[in-house]
Amino acid sequence: MIQVGIIGGAGYTAGELIRLLIHHPEAEMNFVYSTSNAGNQLSKVHQDLVGSLDFEFTDTVNPNVDVLFLCLGHGNSVKFLEANTFSEDTKIIDLGNDFRLEADKVFNGKTFVYGLPELQREAIKKANYVANPGCFATAIQLGLLPLAEANLLNNDVHINAVTGATGAGTSLSATTHYTWRDNNFSYYKPFTHQHLGEINQSVKQLQGDFASDILFMPNRGNFSRGIFATIYTDFEGAVEDAKAMYQAFYKDAEFTFVADDFLHLKQVVNTNKCLIHLHKHGGKLLITSIIDNLLKGASGQAVENMNLMFGLEETTGLGLKATYF
Amino acid sequence: MIQVGIIGGAGYTAGELIRLLIHHPEAEMNFVYSTSNAGNQLSKVHQDLVGSLDFEFTDTVNPNVDVLFLCLGHGNSVKFLEANTFSEDTKIIDLGNDFRLEADKVFNGKTFVYGLPELQREAIKKANYVANPGCFATAIQLGLLPLAEANLLNNDVHINAVTGATGAGTSLSATTHYTWRDNNFSYYKPFTHQHLGEINQSVKQLQGDFASDILFMPNRGNFSRGIFATIYTDFEGAVEDAKAMYQAFYKDAEFTFVADDFLHLKQVVNTNKCLIHLHKHGGKLLITSIIDNLLKGASGQAVENMNLMFGLEETTGLGLKATYF
Amino acid sequence: MIQVGIIGGAGYTAGELIRLLIHHPEAEMNFVYSTSNAGNQLSKVHQDLVGSLDFEFTDTVNPNVDVLFLCLGHGNSVKFLEANTFSEDTKIIDLGNDFRLEADKVFNGKTFVYGLPELQREAIKKANYVANPGCFATAIQLGLLPLAEANLLNNDVHINAVTGATGAGTSLSATTHYTWRDNNFSYYKPFTHQHLGEINQSVKQLQGDFASDILFMPNRGNFSRGIFATIYTDFEGAVEDAKAMYQAFYKDAEFTFVADDFLHLKQVVNTNKCLIHLHKHGGKLLITSIIDNLLKGASGQAVENMNLMFGLEETTGLGLKATYF
Amino acid sequence: MIQVGIIGGAGYTAGELIRLLIHHPEAEMNFVYSTSNAGNQLSKVHQDLVGSLDFEFTDTVNPNVDVLFLCLGHGNSVKFLEANTFSEDTKIIDLGNDFRLEADKVFNGKTFVYGLPELQREAIKKANYVANPGCFATAIQLGLLPLAEANLLNNDVHINAVTGATGAGTSLSATTHYTWRDNNFSYYKPFTHQHLGEINQSVKQLQGDFASDILFMPNRGNFSRGIFATIYTDFEGAVEDAKAMYQAFYKDAEFTFVADDFLHLKQVVNTNKCLIHLHKHGGKLLITSIIDNLLKGASGQAVENMNLMFGLEETTGLGLKATYF
């Protein structure tokens, strides 16, 4: 059994990791680190776990675990790894944004591979250190990469995406207060969301001459889970051409599928799937891409990466029952 | 125009008061006191007010206003009145729970009248100081008082009520975090809610020998506004008898009505109404009572009391458009 | 008192009209027509009205009312007016889309004026027949018209808007079923929504040479009320220039205001307001426009038009308490 | 692999069964019967299944499947079994209420065992025909049975429970319309819910002299999944006594657990768990019992019963990731 350590154990992504790992047939939680909760049962924080397991948070790490998941706020992974030492054999998967960009990917001699399996499955299989993609970044890249590979992103790309309140993390804030968010809608960081960096990087990895603008409006929806992204850009071919191209690009993908019909968000909630739909209007191709922000957008993809890094079936432990309702 | 001062201007009940007063034909806001927001436009906090008025929070009070609304956390009205002096002619309406009980009603020579118009309209008309009832307390009393007046509360009273998230106030908390509350349900303080004091007091005011238990379960619903209360107790008569009794009790009520059909909460949201429905099953009378917790349960009733205290029509400024959807 | 007749009395827009008219100081409901509900109390259908009034639906019309509101499904206003005759003095306000376009505006010798007060207040004042704008159309036009007046719409216009479930009307449907819509998100009619006709028409009325594409994505949100629209297009000036232009355009508007801060939908819910925010990013101007789809987007604007047509203050009966929470 | 047939394949409980069975290691869907959808992909109806499987609805049954799940409206299981014949070896699990009561349990020579594993695991293991309990009935029985076994239900039992909109099934209805249900609350069938029959039956099975009233208020919450039930009755012992009794009763239960802290509904959503909490106030024991109405309250328990009937581990295929948010 793969021995797993989790750092930042009280947050949403750690909670989701724990929910996945307790049913994973090849991995086992070795420790869950949370200084503020040390000594408490996991189920005091992740309260759906009542009855599921007897396991306490700890404030000491086991430096010899097989794999370490960093579930920390952005910028804190670097700080944690500076302060703590692990075995040379310990693989690391960072769920934050500390190592996602080329400029950041080498740290203390460790090189982090960007962990989007649909983009670089083989590199991940060989990696010891993986930077797990951001949630918006995952949904948007999966919508754009087939076009990039075909060098067809030659005009402005218009993106509107909505995320659920879990996207804002566990901290209490005005915009995650129930009375504010209930039946409400808003946006933030118009055109300047921090995930644009990794999106541009991956697009350029496939289409070296990409020089267009990505105009991305990130919105806050009044739901808890999921990202619903619509993307459009110029496309000369027929929708069937686009569909064929996307299906070819995702023919080996275990979790990303091209859907025939218009999508709605709950088709992917509580799964590790990404569903993509293609529609043509005039000269524009409309690409819809939906994921669960906490699973394919975070902890599910992290387990997917772990599976690849340890030579397991990519889908191991990720055959999840969709909530749907 | 009645000159109004509001203390605690950044909270929910103050916000609702402001929303009511800007359309009230006989009253005018003189100042809105909030030390933390002094100098800011009201619309920075109560953001629906953008375009409606140009008015700033202040940290100084005008001691000569005609009426003062105290919109403070429980216990803070006493503190505020100890630290600030107002004209002898200034009437005071306290929305907190500092002066609701007989034991608390006299403060510095001022006697607070319990401000439930359906119970003591005449006393309110003559009062200079009014203690505005609690939200759960309003819904439940309006469900019980006709039985109490008829001396028919002679057995255990079973109450289950659900309140929206605004009932918890503006403070950020775990149970008002969107990701927790969305699609969730829970209770708190089972059988021990603080409003039981004023409920028992009013029941005994009408039925002096009342000695039964009131078993009250307060629940948190995943909605923002409103209280839905179901109450049952033994009742020997027919449902028509109960209906006749309730209609007689509320024949002069401006906001409390007996409904023929089963109720649902949104019938009263964003109104000052209380709707009551009566149903008989076996020997039990089932009484359903619904209000908007911020209006009939707080600021709407406070304006109703102001109207009475100043000799206005009770409904002045309270002809509100229901949200309904 | 203006005598009002309402046709299609059981629908959402009729319900909102009734809620407005019962508090309108200068208008009075003369009849509410609904063949399927004739003889029933209004409060059997619009159940928040319990206690508010004693008034029955009818299946006969009074042909001599002062004003008739048609609250029918699209296409049914023509049918109704073909089958029923009213006095020459009866003014008509159609809330459907039968008479909004130039090609449709003359019917049986009656000429319908497009009823967007911010665009043509004076024409409405003189009109006997008004075509009330669509909900999306209202939000979007109010976001675009100042630019059109300045002949500055010279590039593609990108619009993403989200509407609440009341936008789909009272009919039960798969996408308004609670279990589907709750915590969900989706779109419909991408780039082909029927309101594009009236939007283009009004833009061209101000900017005769307008020839750009309006790319409009209409989305379904999991809330009941409101439209949140974001619009962006090329704009060379500074954001302050845009703000000055919008404030000038709306200086006489009673319900449309330019807001300084980012908007969220609940700022306008249950009001007749439109709030607009302007933001500049690179060469793009981002315009946010929000309304309550049932009020400024339907029944509230219909009353606003009635006020103008009858020489009343535009705001009469529309000083509504925002729900906000 | 156990060959499974599902009747009524387009409904909610069938959808949940399919979601469970596609990940069940020992069972395999042989056919999914739905006359109205015959020939369509399952994913056209259960749209989260896009990408998960290639499988069509059928309008013909395979009479030799190992187990048949009846997911039909109440009363239709009898009709279906009268019209269709299956092998003597085909086990049947009925999710409707046709065979739950003693008076109904024998049909065409088949005897249906009431399928609540916590009550009669051994009988289910030997059964060929199982009547799966109702959703409210499951939550309430699991809250009451330990007291019944100890013969301690000797006074009125007061129950208030809230169910999500999926409890009302797939049919479109006024009370499951989004605009009605959103942010709303209501009840139905006060004190007369049809599940009282099976609840009383199970209680009497353990406490033969049970003769008290069960006063059950069923409520509609504005959420999609789950049942939150509070129950109270007289209890002389300490809360620790109650806890010990419940823990003993459920010591072999795989899905029912006694929790130390107050509960909230989302602790069990998308799991097959029942969580129970005990609290003492005065002479009353307050029992809280929560389940997912579609899983432990329907399809999850049906799979649990299948596992028992086929000699599998009770938990097989039911190690579900909670949604939690």
From TrEMBL, chains A, B, C, D:
| Enzyme Commission number(s) | 1.2.1.38
What does the similarity note say?
Belongs to the NAGSA dehydrogenase family. Type 1 subfamily.
Organism, as annotated: Pseudotamlana carrageenivorans
Q: Where is the active site?
A: 135
**Residue ranges annotated for the Semialdehyde dehydrogenase NAD-binding domain, each copy included:** 3-127
Q: What does this protein do?
A: Catalyzes the NADPH-dependent reduction of N-acetyl-5-glutamyl phosphate to yield N-acetyl-L-glutamate 5-semialdehyde.
Give the pathway: Amino-acid biosynthesis; L-arginine biosynthesis; N(2)-acetyl-L-ornithine from L-glutamate: step 3/4
What name is this protein filed under? N-acetyl-gamma-glutamyl-phosphate reductase
What is any one of the record's Gene Ontology cellular component terms? Answer: cytoplasm
The EC class name is: oxidoreductase
Task: Give any Pfam family that matches.
Answer: Semialdhyde_dh
User: Which SUPFAM superfamilies does UniProt cross-reference here?
Assistant: Glyceraldehyde-3-phosphate dehydrogenase-like, C-terminal domain, NAD(P)-binding Rossmann-fold domains
| Major site of localization recorded for this protein | cytoplasm
The UniProt keyword set, sorted, is: Amino-acid biosynthesis, Arginine biosynthesis, Cytoplasm, NADP, Oxidoreductase
Q: Where is this chain's protein located in or outside the cell?
A: Cytoplasm
This entry's Gene Ontology molecular function terms read: N-acetyl-gamma-glutamyl-phosphate reductase activity; NAD binding; NADP+ binding
Q: What's a single GO BP term from this record?
A: L-arginine biosynthetic process
Q: Which reaction does it catalyse?
A: N-acetyl-L-glutamate 5-semialdehyde + phosphate + NADP(+) = N-acetyl-L-glutamyl 5-phosphate + NADPH + H(+)
